[in-house]
Structure formats: C-alpha cells, structure tokens
C-alpha cells in the first residue's frame, strides 16, 4: 500500500511506480524467496533507488501486503464476473477455483507457494494471509447463503465445514499443478465436479 506519511502530487505516476515496484518484488520473491530478496535486490530489479521505493512503501512487509490485496481484488473480480453469468453455483465456484489454482501462470503459483512458506516463518505475513483468507471465506459465504443457493438454510457449523473443505480442495490444486505440470482442467473436473456438487447441495439430495 502507498505510505500515508508522504505526499504524492501525481496519483497516476504514483500508481505506476507502485505497480513497477510490485512487479519487481514479485519477481524477486519467486527467484530468491522472501528472505533472500532484500530491498536492494528489489530496487535493482525495479530500476529505482531503495530510497525512492520507500516513498511508496514503508517496508518489505508493506509490499507483500499490497501484493496480497491485489491478489484478493483479482479473485473477487473473478467471482463478480462469473456471478453475472446465468450459471449455477457449482459452475461459478468450479470456474473460479480452477482458473485461480490450476490455470494460472506458473509465476503466480510460485509466488503463492512462497507466500505460504513465508507465513510459516513470519508472523506478520501469516497474519496478512489469515486476513485475506477470512475475507475470501466471507465472500464464499455470501454466495452460499444467497437466494439461489441450496445451502442458505444450513447451520453455521455445517456451512463453515463445507467452506473449509472447498478451500482445502481448491488450494490442493496448486500443489498438484506444481508436482504434475501436465495436469489438465478436463482431467481434474472428472472427479472434482461431482465432489463440488455434493458439497454444494443438502446431503440428502446428493445421495
């Protein structure tokens, strides 16, 4: 996020510089990991001085926070675009999950994995990812409690259970793609579609 302690008279230029830094930082994190990519490395990759970067970001954690926020915005935009289509909730979540975790470019997948690895070592990054995860689960909850959802009458406990299983399945696609690069959407959907249908309807109707 842009630091609030410094003024940026040209918002358009500031946004362009921030994007330049975020792109460089993401590249550095993928290549060298969070610890290995210091501000000096990021500044060289971005083509600007470290002091210049500090005009826009207070710290390396602020950069990673902005990357996470950008990732969340992209994920929510996927849901918003899919919600405009006349498809059922199963199709919406399948398309969003497969697009995000299976069909994304390798660079995005590697950055996601690096962020999760760093969360195991860095409480600040862990807290940022937990906040992002909470927002994502709340967004899914909105979908599953909407009028078109068959799950709107479920108890809080059962709804939470299903959301956690859905997230676990979708996140697992990221690792499968890393270990099995040739894995295709068509192959995954053979088993994933009936699993999602089971999770997204009352159990008595899924038997």
Question: What does this protein look like?
Answer:
By secondary structure, this protein is mostly helical. The chain folds into two domains: 1-58, Arc Repressor Mutant, subunit A; 59-206, Tetracycline Repressor, domain 2, CATH 1.10.357. Helices cover 74% and strands 0% of the residues. It contains ten helices and no strands. The chain has helices at residues 11-36, 39-46, 50-53, 60-83, 89-101, 106-119, 123-144, 156-179, 185-199, 203-206. Helix 4 runs antiparallel to helix 5 (89-101) and helix 5 packs across helix 9 (185-199). The longest helix is centred in the first third of the chain and has 26 residues, at 11-36. It is elongated and about 60 Å long. The N and C termini lie far apart (48 Å). The model is unreliable at 1-5 (pLDDT under 50).
Show the helix and strand layout.
Layout: H1 11-36, H2 39-46, H3 50-53, H4 60-83, H5 89-101, H6 106-119, H7 123-144, H8 156-179, H9 185-199, H10 203-206
Helix pairs in contact: 1-2, 1-4, 1-6, 4-5, 4-7, 5-9, 6-7, 7-8
What characteristics describe this protein?
207 residues; mainly alpha; Arc Repressor Mutant, subunit A; Tetracycline Repressor, domain 2; 2 domains; disordered N terminus
Give the biggest sheet. Answer: none
Which architecture of the largest domain does the CATH hierarchy give at level 2? Orthogonal Bundle
Percent of residues in helices comes to over 70%
The ordered string of helix (H) and strand (E) elements is HHHHHHHHHH
Shape from CA axes? elongated
Number of strands: 0
* CATH class category label of the largest domain: Mainly Alpha
Radius of gyration: 19 Å
CATH topology of the largest domain: Tetracycline Repressor, domain 2
């Amino acid at each position: 996020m842009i630091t609030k302690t410094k003024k940026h008279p040209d918002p358009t230029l500031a946004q362009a510089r921030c994007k330049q830094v975020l792109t460089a930082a993401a590249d550095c994190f993928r290549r060298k990991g969070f610890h290995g990519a210091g501000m000096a490395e990021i500044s060289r990759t971005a083509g600007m001085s470290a002091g210049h970067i500090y005009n826009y970001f207070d710290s390396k954690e602020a950069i990673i926070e902005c990357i996470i926020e950008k990732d969340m915005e992209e994920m929510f935009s996927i849901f918003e675009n899919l919600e405009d289509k006349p498809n059922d909730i199963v199709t919406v979540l399948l398309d969003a999950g497969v697009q995000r975790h299976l069909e994304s470019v390798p660079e995005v997948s590697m950055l996601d994995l690096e962020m999760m690895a760093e969360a195991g070592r860095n409480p600040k990054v862990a807290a940022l990812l937990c906040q992002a995860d909470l927002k994502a689960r709340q967004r899914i909850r909105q979908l599953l409690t909407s009028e078109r959802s068959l799950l709107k009458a479920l108890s809080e406990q059962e709804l939470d259970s299903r959301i956690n299983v859905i997230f676990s399945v979708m996140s697992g696609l990221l690792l499968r793609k890393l270990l099995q690069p040739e894995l295709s959407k068509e192959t995954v959907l053979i088993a994933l579609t009936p699993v999602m249908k089971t999770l997204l309807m009352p159990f008595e109707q899924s038997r």
